[in-house]
Every structure is written in structure tokens, then in C-alpha cells.
Design goal:
Ribosomal Protein S8, Chain: A, domain 1; GMP Synthetase, Chain A, domain 3; alpha+beta; single chain; 3-stranded mixed β-sheet; 3-stranded antiparallel β-sheet
Length: about 190
């Protein structure tokens, strides 16, 4: 392949993601989300409404699309599989740099915000257990986004470090105790 980018006949080659700082144009993203959601909801025959809100400063803008309506249960079935799939397609629709995926998120019935708080609490409890027992704690397999939440929650937490292990959908986050410092003051 030699670094070449291939595409289907009649379609332009995919552009590489820009290097360096990336910014989210919140106004453009919100307009594109409206176009995407009107099409997706209509074609899927879902009885849903949504609100798009933006928060944060221009450098850290976050866009949240909150769904409500008769088909909320469909979005939330099987650990919100449809909600997350729609979000993934929306990221592709917007052609978002992967570093921006956390800035555009879908929620329904506060599922995502509740899950976020559960993950943070689980991370803190696991870290405390590791500090008390000196034994590693292994979470069940979880998505890269959920592992990232736990990594960030425990980043800099005293006495523990986190590592992702495994591959694919079996990838797990493990919380390890920090080893005692040697004579030089560095962790072993």
C-alpha cells in the first residue's frame, strides 16, 4: 500500500485527519446533526424528538443530543446499543477527527450521564480496594470510551496505576497497586 489511500470508484479518497490542535465548529456541527437526525429518525420510523445543546468555551465545546419520545426504550435496549450506534454514525456523518468523538455525544433518559457517574464511582471503589489489599482489580470488558473514563478518573490517584489489557471486545482495564519506591525514590 505504501501509504496510498484507496476509495471506492467515483468517491474521493478519504482525507487524513489533521495533525495538531483540532477544534469543533459547534454551530456547523449542530446544523449537520439536525440534517442527520431528521433523515435517520424518519427513515428508521422512530417516534423520537431530540434537543441539541452546546456547552463549554470555544476550545472545549461539547454538543449533547438528548432524545425523548415513545421509542426511548428501543434506543436503550441491550446497554443502549442503538443509541451508541447512532452516535457512531453521527461521528462519521460529521467526519469528526477521532480526538473529537467525546465532544459530540448522544443521551436518552440520562443513560449516558448516569453510566458516566457509575464508572467514576466504580473506579474510585476499585482504587480503594487495590490500595487496601495490594491486589490488582480487573474490570469486566468495556468499550474504549468507558475505559478512558476510568483511566481519567484514576489518573494521578495515589497508590494505583491503570492499564488496558487484552484485545478487541474482550479488552479490560486493570487497576494495579503502585510498587514501593526504591532507594532512588522511583517506583519499581
Amino acid at each position: 500500500m505504501n501509504g496510498e489511500r484507496f476509495s471506492a470508484p467515483g468517491r474521493p479518497a478519504a482525507r487524513p485527519y489533521p495533525q495538531g490542535d483540532v477544534k469543533l465548529d459547534a454551530a456547523r456541527a449542530a446544523e449537520e446533526m439536525k440534517r442527520f437526525l431528521e433523515l435517520a429518525i424518519r427513515e428508521m420510523g422512530l417516534a423520537l424528538e431530540y434537543d441539541i445543546s452546546a456547552s463549554g468555551d470555544s476550545a472545549e465545546t461539547e454538543i449533547v443530543i438528548a432524545f425523548r419520545g415513545e421509542d426511548e426504550a428501543l434506543l436503550l435496549e441491550r446497554n443502549a446499543e442503538l443509541l451508541l450506534a447512532l452516535e457512531h454514525i453521527a461521528h462519521r456523518w460529521l467526519r469528526l477527527d477521532p480526538r473529537m468523538h467525546d465532544r459530540v455525544r448522544f443521551d436518552c433518559g440520562d443513560y449516558r450521564s448516569t453510566r458516566l457517574e457509575e464508572l467514576k464511582l466504580s473506579a474510585r471503589v476499585a482504587a480503594q480496594r487495590v490500595r487496601e489489599t495490594g491486589q490488582a482489580f480487573r474490570f469486566n470488558p468495556m468499550s474504549s470510551r468507558e475505559r478512558r473514563v476510568v483511566h481519567l478518573e484514576l489518573n494521578g490517584a495515589p497508590g494505583v496505576r491503570t492499564v488496558s489489557e487484552g484485545a478487541g471486545d474482550r479488552r479490560q482495564l486493570v487497576v494495579y497497586p503502585l510498587k514501593q519506591n526504591d532507594a532512588s525514590g522511583r517506583p519499581r
